[in-house]
């Protein structure tokens, strides 16, 4: 865009740089249908001189203004309420804790008839999961089930990696959801979140102060944001679940420290996993590392058993806790610490899903699906040779 020249404006406004009468307009602002005020310049020289600071309005204003001007979006995109059971054209009122706001969400995405679906896909209600005895008893997986979990978790990893490669300033979280949805069905899988207790999308995208369960919507990612993408795939009758938090463009040092600390919390927790270890020790390790860095641990959401069920026993808190039970060979569960820059307390948006920090400060999360082995742990959702290099601390 640097090389473009400004185009002739219809009537006179003031130059966005020097205030003189302006007859020229930034072509990118015209393309985005941004307001003429702030897009007008008196000369090519003023336009060039203003470019480095001016260009950021193309992303920022696109979020706030252009959206409301588009008829297509007004017709087909609505705000989510009541856990996904209601849509509304008006942004709901709420005592927002930070600067992030919900945006409208797109229509539901379709999964081909040939793909095997979990029992909530049609009506939004899981039927086997809540009444299963595996809510209280931790399953020891058979070798066949372990092999299917390996396959599913590998697909989930590849799907998350596809999303990671796509992330940059200006993309909407709905477009990330589209990447996740298409990559999942291309692999023959079903995106487990889709219609799970009415969740309206195929993955969770949690930006800045969102702790977890953010709903992909029309908001464009901005330079400096952090965004967690949480992918779960259902394939060959089992679920695989993982998430990572990514940097969007240039992120401030404190947010980088938060994301790295959260990554380390998960790594430290994984390192203790082996037969005979108490489930409660996971939270002790995570709480210690987060506290030492001056961060806090979310209490409302925990790691969980996983397999033919999306969520089952054991429940694994990431904070100091009294959970009972020992790890055994053949168990499969997730660890998924959510770490806050400020206080640990969470609140829920009017959509019934989006968990945000109560103080509006940022939150990060990482998640893996883990198998307890004879001697330790197998990270079923572990990074692949092909995984993109998105974390500076992993590049040697
Ligand atoms: N993937 C999330 C987890 O780690 C659960 C998402 S459920 C949804 O447990 F409905 F919000 F998608
Ligand atoms: Co999980
Ligand atoms: Co998850």
From TrEMBL:
Keywords assigned: Aminopeptidase, Cytoplasm, Hydrolase, Metal-binding, Protease, Zinc, Zinc-finger
InterPro entries recorded: Creatinase/aminopeptidase-like, Pept_M24, Pept_M24_MAP, Pept_M24A_MAP1, Zfn-C6H2
Residues where Zn(2+) 3 binds: 230, 241, 367
GO CC annotations, alphabetized: cytosol
Localization annotation: Cytoplasm
Enzyme class name: hydrolase
Cofactor(s) the protein requires to work: Co(2+); Zn(2+); Mn(2+); Fe(2+)
The protein's name in its UniProt record: Methionine aminopeptidase
Chief location category: cytoplasm
One GO MF term: metalloaminopeptidase activity
Complexes and interactors: Associates with the 60S ribosomal subunit of the 80S translational complex.
